[in-house]
Design goal:
The complex is a heterodimer of chains A (221) and B (217).
Chain A lengths: L7 H6 L1 H34 L3 H16 L2 H9 L11 H26 L3 H9 L4 H16 L1 H14 L12 H12 L2 H30 L3
Chain B lengths: L7 H43 L1 H12 L2 H14 L6 H27 L2 H9 L4 H31 L11 H12 L2 H29 L5
Helix pairs in contact in B: 1-2, 1-4, 1-7, 2-4, 3-4, 4-6, 5-6, 6-8, 7-8
Classes of the chains: A mainly alpha (221), B mainly alpha (217).
């Protein structure tokens, strides 16, 4: 059917290299998710605060993150910040771009989750003598994370898929970057990228499964 | 910062890029939605067990990064000597990607129609097709439209990735201008503003519809 001889051996020989790349991918995804969660919680706090400035800042962040492409956000971190004399490495700009994106989407999820938590709970905490920050941290945030658990895992899968965009800013250590480097050397595009696709698929499935297991343990009650 | 060598021609160039983004999005969303409705109805009709193969295939499109899918499809079309231009390849990949998400949305919409309502229709003598057309379609659209709008916007944003195949869409156009004029921040800001202007009003409309059409109002 095809006048093309597939060279799967070459791709399989490069498998260890690609698995190393997959580790870097996981590392970026997890880091960006951790940063994104923290920033999203801060943004949620800003949204609840009385200050107009802080609320505007949080709304602007969420809307920009949700209404522009992730690739644009990574470009902004990589090329745009250069105008301020900040030159980020591909790793840092990829991380910054994805973390920015994650924070925006997660903050929006948290806003939805927050609606499900009655005001009275935070007020009860306040009347027990907590400061408003304590009530937020000890009463609201744990419930918020629990309600938003499914969207958070979805976002985690998204973050893994988004790491592949790093190759467009010259990243060459993550899975997509390693694959592209191998491809540039051998021109076996289909074989290498098919293998990369399988690895990405497996990572995504493992993360989804792990999340389901964690959820079944966390939400027993 | 405000003196720029951006000329009128460059703005037209950016607008052409935006036109390309919109063209790719429109073709992919239309084709993907038709395919998605088709697959979604099949999924519901077959039930969760018999539709496992279909679900599995569609799940692949959602679990593999779009960039990898695009590269793979492009490599495949050159191996198979299909001779597709980048535009066709991009549209095919994005359509399948859209269809994979649209299937889930359609399935959710159909599942949201109470079975009793459909049975009532059938016992009044409606055929399966009439039941689908006069009872399921209006009710399911109500549930699905907000998420479908979200999907359309997602595809519009993800269409930026087709630059990897050499298609000059909005982001690629601004990248070319950045290389030529060396004003990355200014040009990227314009590019981001264009994306935002396309996306934000439609996102707001989606949010409004979601609030307006929520099931228990």
């Amino acid at each position: 059917m095809f006048k093309y001889s597939f060279q799967w051996n070459q791709a399989l020989k490069a498998l260890p290299q690609m698995l190393d790349g997959a580790l870097v991918t996981m590392q970026i995804a997890l880091l960006s998710m951790a940063i994104g969660l923290v920033v999203a919680i801060i943004l949620t706090l800003f949204r609840l605060s009385g200050s107009r400035l802080l609320r505007g800042f949080a709304v602007a962040w969420v809307e920009i993150a949700r209404n522009t492409p992730a690739l644009f956000q990574i470009y902004m971190a990589h090329f745009g910040l250069g105008s301020f004399g900040i030159h980020l490495s591909p790793f840092t700009s990829l991380l910054a771009g994805i973390a920015f994106n994650n924070a925006g989407y997660l903050a929006e999820n948290f806003r939805g989750a927050l609606k499900a938590i009655p005001d009275t709970q935070a007020r009860a905490g306040r009347s027990l003598g907590m400061t408003s920050l304590q009530a937020f941290r000890l009463i609201v945030v744990p419930q918020m994370l629990r309600i938003a658990f499914l969207p958070i895992t979805n976002q985690m899968v998204w973050a893994i898929l988004m790491t592949s965009l790093g190759v467009t800013v010259g990243m060459n250590t993550d899975l997509a970057g390693v694959t592209q480097a191998l491809n540039a050397r051998t021109f076996r595009t289909f074989e290498f990228f098919a293998l990369a696709a399988v690895i990405y698929y497996l990572i995504a499935k493992v993360v989804t499964l792990a999340a389901r297991l964690i959820a079944s343990r966390l939400f027993r009650y | 910062m405000f003196d720029t060598s951006l000329s009128w021609g460059d703005i037209v160039f950016l607008a052409q890029g935006a036109g390309m983004t919109l063209a790719v999005t429109a073709v992919s969303v239309i084709a993907g939605t038709i395919l998605g409705i088709f697959c979604g109805v099949i999924r519901v009709q077959l039930g969760p067990y018999w539709s496992i193969p279909l679900t599995f295939v569609l799940d692949i499109f959602r679990s593999v990064p779009l960039l990898i899918q695009l590269v793979l499809a492009n490599a495949f079309q050159s191996i198979a000597k299909l001779g597709w231009p980048p535009f066709t390849t991009s549209c095919v990949v994005l359509s399948l990607y859209t269809a994979a998400y649209c299937t889930e949305i359609v399935r959710g919409g159909i599942d949201a129609v109470p079975l009793t309502t459909r049975r009532a229709g059938r016992s009044l003598g409606l055929s399966w097709w009439q039941d689908m057309r006069f009872i399921v379609a209006p009710l399911a659209t109500r549930v699905s439209l907000p998420s479908w709008i979200g999907l359309t916007l997602g595809v519009m944003k993800d269409s930026a990735l087709v630059l990897w195949l050499g298609l000059i869409e909005l982001l690629r156009a601004s990248q070319i201008l950045v290389t030529r004029l060396q004003e990355p921040l200014f040009i990227l800001l314009i590019c981001g503003a264009i994306y935002f202007l396309i996306s934000f009003p439609i996102a707001r409309l989606g949010g409004y519809l979601e609030k307006r059409w929520s099931p228990n109002d």
